[in-house]
Amino acid sequence: MKIALVAAVVASLACVMNLTVAQELAKAPLSVPAAAKVADKAKLNINQASLEQLVAVPGIGEKKAQAIKDYISANGPIKDQKQLTEVKGIGDKLAAKVAEHVSF
Predict the structure, then answer these.
(1) How far are the Cα atoms of 18, 82, 91 from residue 62, in angstroms, in the given order?
(2) Does residue 48 or residue 35 have the better pLDDT?
């Protein structure tokens, strides 16, 4: 009788643990490779982005973000990756990196 009671208690605890784990897994976001995440996100329009949005782009800090905003104010919209290299502090390598995350 004691063994049956202990077995029932252990089985009940196992069910509660499984339910708790299942609920936590349901809340957690699924792990997706970084490339898939980038592909799913819409690219940021560099010409309409705020300073804060530009700072969030990999490789762009506060100074480069401000330089982009200043360039757009002085010269109009940036039309392509090549024109992005005309912004002070942005060379070919950085422009290529940024172009993966922005649209023109």
Answers:
(1) 47, 21, 16
(2) 48
Q: CA-to-CA distance for 77 and 68, rounded, in angstroms?
A: 10
Answering whether pTM is above 0.70, one says no
73, 51 contact by CB (below 8 A) = no
Dist. CA 66–CA 62, nearest whole Å? 6
Paired tokens of 11: 């089985």
Q: Which two tokens stand for residue 60?
A: 């762009």
CB 88 within 8 A of CB 75: no
Each residue of 16-36: pLDDT tens digit? 455 555 566 566 665 545 444
How far apart CA 85 and CA 89 sit, in angstroms, is 8
Q: Return the pLDDT at 34.
A: 47
Residue that the structure tokens 């905003």 belong to: 69
Cα(43)–Cα(85) distance, integer angstroms: 19
